[in-house]
Amino acid sequence: MPASRGFFVNYSDLREPILTYLGFHGGMADGETEARIREILPRVEKAARFRRSEGRFTALPLFLQKEPYLSFLSGCSAVVLEAVTLGGEADLLIRRLSKEDMAAGVIADACASALLEALSDEAEEVLGEGRTYRFCPGYGGSDIADVKYILDAVRADRIGICLQKSGLMLPQKSMAGFVGLGKKAQKTCAGCILQEHCTYRREGRVCYAK
User: Fold this and answer.
1) Greatest C-alpha distance within the chain
2) Nearest to residue 26, comparing CAs of 187, 205, 174?
3) Band of the pLDDT at 42, cuts 50, 70, 90?
4) What is the distance between the alpha carbons of residues 107 and 100, in angstroms, rounded to a whole number?
């Protein structure tokens, strides 16, 4: 069902993912960048309208009956398809800031991406501890075009998400994926299509570390 909520996320909770989106993979940034993030993040939070729509299935939807989905969901008793968005207001803020100051726009985009991930993770906590992490089409060599099936299944139009002919979602700060229920699965680098070119692995780290 569609859901929306009010929220506030501390800078300390989002600092590392924001810096990662900005390319500071060591978690260190100059003072000016840190100050601008602290200034822009509250504006992104104020503009964002987090919404989520989900559908729970005990029988595996047809589009998931292929690899790598089958391996990922092996042992699960059900699957929850979900779509989430920060809404068009966040997109408008990013575009406006980009026109005024390109650097501010880049920082706002990173703040919005980190915020969307954090709120999505938080929303999934109601599914209980016996669940996998969120898997989105495009991961592990899967077909990003499968996003369409998720959006259709959860009626993502009800929370304002539409799919363009290009395959990109609007609002741009939106995401679609699924979570398996009935088992735990930890994120790993196995099967990632970016393994050979991964900046994190070269630094001895992983992209999904908290």
Assistant:
1) 51
2) 205
3) very high
4) 13
Q: pLDDT, tens digit, for every residue of 151-190?
A: 999 999 999 999 999 999 999 999 999 999 999 876 666 6
Structure tokens at 18: 């924001």
Closest CA to 112 of 89, 129, 131: 89
173 Cα distance to chain centroid: 8
Say what the pTM is: 0.87
Task: Tell me how far apart the alpha carbons of residues 32 and 102 are, in angstroms, rounded to a whole number.
Answer: 15
The confidence band for 192, taking pLDDT boundaries of 50, 70 and 90, is low
